[in-house]
Amino acid sequence: MIVAIDGPTAAGKGTLARLLARDLGFAYLDTGSLYRAVGLALLRTGHSPDDEAAAVAAARSLGSDLLTDPGLRDEATGNAASRVAAMPAVRAALLDYQREFARRPPGGARGAVLDGRDIGTVVCPDATVKLFVTAAPEVRARRRHLELSGRGEDVPFAQVLADLNERDRRDQARAAAPLRPAPDAHLLDTSDLAIDAALARAKAIIAGRM
Ligand code: DC
């Protein structure tokens, strides 16, 4: 059983996916962390986030050190991730790992929850359940701003909002696996939903498909 969760940045899909995986006893893969790790690899080695050859090489040799690096969550890493995510060769290099995770979840789990941008459309088009999680840009920017200040990153709100709009634009406009809901995805708008309400709604949708 595969639960695919897609949506724009800071819509709450990561938290939702983690809690769903915990409650269902499924393995969880945050696919954004793969793109972030590629972005971080470039920043750390002094490459431009637009250097496609370096990005592909990084994607092919991702190690667990980068995937657990605290710098993964930095704003600069997120922006670099959004740039490398637009490169078809980078996406191709990360595809098999994601599909294999979904097909054979680690630890013998009987299912997997994957979150990202293209899980329901490209990575797992046959997922058992597809959720597309959204929220208004201002709401997402407020959440991202809170998260960043909680980690001591002092970015002005206006800049967080501008970055988020730019990242949305890039994720939606790119030719390779653009961010869009799969035709059979359930839409979940979390603008006015606390996490427990969003979780209850997602569980009701999943229960209907099991
Ligand atoms: O969800 P996130 O902010 O950690 O994702 C980082 C970047 O990676 C974001 O710009 C979109 C991209 N991404 C993607 O293109 N496809 C995915 N499945 C996951 C993330």
How would you sum up this structure, described in words?
- This protein is an alpha/beta fold and 210 residues long.
- It has one domain (2-207): Rossmann fold.
- It has ten helices and five strands; from the N terminus they run βαβαααααβαβααβα.
- The chain has helices at 13-24, 32-44, 52-60, 64-67, 75-84, 88-103, 119-123, 137-150, 157-173, 195-207; strands at 2-6, 27-30, 112-116, 129-134, 186-189.
- A five-stranded parallel β-sheet has the order 2-3-1-4-5, sandwiched between helices.
- The termini are close together.
- The structure holds 2'-deoxycytidine-5'-monophosphate.
Strand content: 5-15%
Bound molecules: 2'-deoxycytidine-5'-monophosphate
By oligomeric state, this entry counts as single chain
Report the radius of gyration as a whole number of Å. Answer: 16 Å
Determine the mean pLDDT. 95
- Class based on secondary structure composition and strand pairing: alpha/beta
| Stretches with pLDDT under 50, minimum 5 residues | none
SSE string: EHEHHHHHEHEHHEH
Assigned CATH class: Alpha Beta
Main sheet strand line-up? 2-3-1-4-5
CATH superfamily: P-loop containing nucleotide triphosphate hydrolases
Say how many strands there are.
5
Largest sheet, strands/sense/barrel: 5 strands, parallel
Helix content: 40-55%
How far is it from the N-terminal to the C-terminal residue, by CA?
A: 8 Å
User: Total number of helical segments?
Assistant: 10
